[in-house]
Amino acid sequence: MTPPNDTEASPTVSITINGAAVEANPGELLIDAAERHGVYIPRFCYHPRMNPVGMCRMCLVDVDTGRGPGLQPSCMISVSEGMTVDTESERTQRAQEGILELLLVNHPLDCPVCDKGGECPLQDQTVAYGPGESRFVEEKRHYEKPIPISDLVYLDRERCILCDRCTRFASEVAGDPLIHFIDRGNETQVNTFPDEPFSSYFSGNTVQICPVGALTAEPYRFKARPWDLAENESTAVVDSTGARVVLQSSRDELVRVLGVDSDAVNWSWLSDKERFTYEANRSEDRLTDPLVRSESGEFATARWSDAAAFAAEAFAVEPDRIGVIGGARLPVEGQFMWSSLLTGLGVNDVDPQIGDGLDLDLVRSLPRATIADAAAPGGVVVLLCGDLKEELPTLYLRLRHAAVEDGAALIELSARATGLARYAKAKLHPLPGSIDDVAGALAAGTLNEAVGGVDPADLAKVAELLGSGRPVTVVVGRTNLAEDAGLITRAAAALHELVPTAKFLPALRRGNINGAIETGLARGRSTTEILRDAAAGEIETLVLLGADPLADHPDRALVSSAFDMVENLVAVDTFKTASSARADVILPAATFGEVDGSFVNLERRISPLRAKVTAPGQGRADWMIAAELAVALDQDIDVASLDDVRAQLSAAVPAFADVDWNNMDRGGDGPLLGSSGATGPSLAEIAAATSVAVPAVDGYGLRLVVDRKLWDLGTMVQQSPSLAHLAADATLSLAPADFDALGVDQGSTVTLSGPGGETAELNVSASRDLPRGVAHIPFRASGFDVGTFLSASTAVVDVRVNAG
Amino acid sequence: MSRLNANNELLAKEVIARYPIKKSALIPLLHLVQEQNGYVTSEGMTHLAELLDITSAEVLGTCSFYEMFKLEPVGRYVINVCGTMSCQLLGADELIHHAEERLGIKVGATTDDGLFTLEKAECQAACTEAPCLQVNYRHEYRVTHGDFDALVDRLVADSKKNGSAVIPPHGTLSETRQHIPAGRAVGAVAPDEVDGAPVWLPVDEPEETA
Ligand code: SF4
Ligand code: FES
Ligand code: FES
Hints:
A: 7-stranded mixed sheet; globular; B: Glutaredoxin; 4-stranded mixed sheet; binds FE2/S2 (inorganic) cluster
């Protein structure tokens, strides 16, 4: 396609709307141009983030382009010079009345019992533009009242006005066309294929954009009426994308989360995890009181001051015998207060990652990209990371859009084919342990021989894309939890060497991990090193800041022995988790939706977290907990309010110096943090200091690939009643050729044996997403804990699979 | 087996290879499923989804849009009697009534022996030959009640002569299958890789520009 030659075109197009001359942008849709100039044209099917289809005809207006006035759908027509538009003409009004009368022919008048009543575009526009009464006296069409089209979404086909928003979203935006128009004419309905539910990770968006009450979300059905809701804008914290959201509550309880259209981040879309995990706030398992382990070994509730004093005693040891794990759940303010507290105590070992992340020196020295950089039209994106659809789903949507609509070229450099594979221009899936060799071969230009099982032809293709001069972004994260993170460090450095202008987007998954890095809550020994030293008796006090390493750290055995050895285990948490249940004292924290604060996303963009409801019981904001401990420990920390914390943060950390705390999201997107001013080692130096000894492949074994699923046994999912049962099963998958070699049926049970002689029985299936020579098992999946097979001390994990 | 059998799967792959975008082969392949099973089976649709790399919902969406794809089993012979104006003026209502009596079923139903499904149809573009009907989409013109009875008798007899039937069972569109020899195939060029006129259009070579 040739781009339009616009060298002579005027920068704007002059049109007349309702008698007023206005300037529109070339190519702009009339419906948008009118709205920008204060004229709202009613609509149902048009959505600014999807391609217009002209389904509903509600946006018909009188348009004259020189050939006389006539009705045109304003969502389908671009502005043109001299266009005259009348959105209030008699002809327009008659059209609007006619369309509404037509839409209401089959629409039930069950608004009093409809969840959408009170915020329904059909209801509102009927009042504003409708004919007042209908001539239709015949029977309306009838369908079985709401049918579940997935575990989370119900569809009432009688209410549907066939606007094609949900179906377009499913195919255009999410890439999961599991709902579709079925049948035709008067029988047309939205539906799924029988027994193939709309199990998209993004299904909740269809509920948000449905212009009537046809689609409802199971967690919100009949929970509240729109006029009872109070709301506040905030940021989603379940992953590091930092999608902008609105929190809605009724009677001091969160009942709904909606996506906000942030141009920089989530374009109004949310994953179902970001949308529905608010349910966990009111889980019965929430910690409401400080808990202190009594002499008898049982937990007893305690007063805050007593619990703080108890916890403070645990800090009365040599500072280098204290290790802190976690912190990514905390808002920036809490992170900074903890960081200050630890500094005051001389504690120098704190890691917000749980052994499943990246080298933090690497993250700090990477030239950062924004999401917009990565999703820029015509760019090249290297996916040196896990499956973004599973780990950072909103980022997945942006990259998918870039590839499908904007000509971005995606290159997969990962352990297996991910959710973005079908849109990728090139795919490299090296054997675990050789990803750095593959990146190294690209950097060195040695493209003639196979490396790590990757075909030289594919290497050449990737080299060509990377050398094409198009801007390159690398999304860097862990593609395989069973593989040493040092390999990713080396691979990232090699890519940087090959394309020095490349920018990087760290795909660290865990919530406010970037806030922790920026506020200094990430220094000294890593979580794995802390745990190792703890297991060796060199750490006396282990502090868990909202971390559950027993479930989250890949090396299960290491965490257990560390917990056994430490004298004091202090936990700050919202739930009693596998780890915090073993603590000596648990301090209950207030969390998402309950406290004000701020969040730094993977671009280093800061955005506000706002309170909407009160925390259950005595849960407190994390900055207050740190302040309370500081008092108990005689630390000189003087903060009385969130503003005090922020003022100190701005003064102490250069990256936050310019943050305008009270106007973070003015204009929609939060700003990017300033430069941290830190000068660390260069990428090349970091890579040179990283050595990983990968054993040779043994001829009989398979190399383990372990990565995450969106629905897993993680706390937030499990504490949300609507989501808990969605957790993926721990199935073992093999490449079709390896599967065939095993000679068993799809789904039969096989024996997996690990390097230390451990064994497990698992169901096996073939998957085309895998290269030969690997065995794939999802992390924290239901039925089998693969963490028992992982070890932090080996670079890769070789396993054997035997039939029966 | 209501997925495509091995032979038909091969055929399906041949058809798919004709298109730059796999999904374009959907309608011909739905006919293939219908030809194999007499109607479009659920398993057949799922199989097509796999072959075309789309979802079953997309297959169903397309399939259910078209009257000629049956989602439930129908008789070996689907008889569509035209009920539109010309035919109606020349006795279509009576013909339909007669057909119902003769076959012992109502419009829309299938006889117990699985031989006949009776349907009322819209104009079949043979108005000059009214009243008319189609058997598996093959026309019969100026049909009298006697003609109808004779037709039914013939079809019953045909159905027993395995193989040499005049009208093939429902689902078979044509008995000669299209096969494009490799040398004559246009080939599957993806739309965004097309930079000239369609290959079958003779065009003047553009003049070389300096
Ligand atoms: S269910 Fe809602 S969004 Fe989907 S087509 Fe119907 S009215 Fe539109
Ligand atoms: S909004 Fe334009 S046709 Fe629906
Ligand atoms: S009216 Fe019967 S064929 Fe046209």
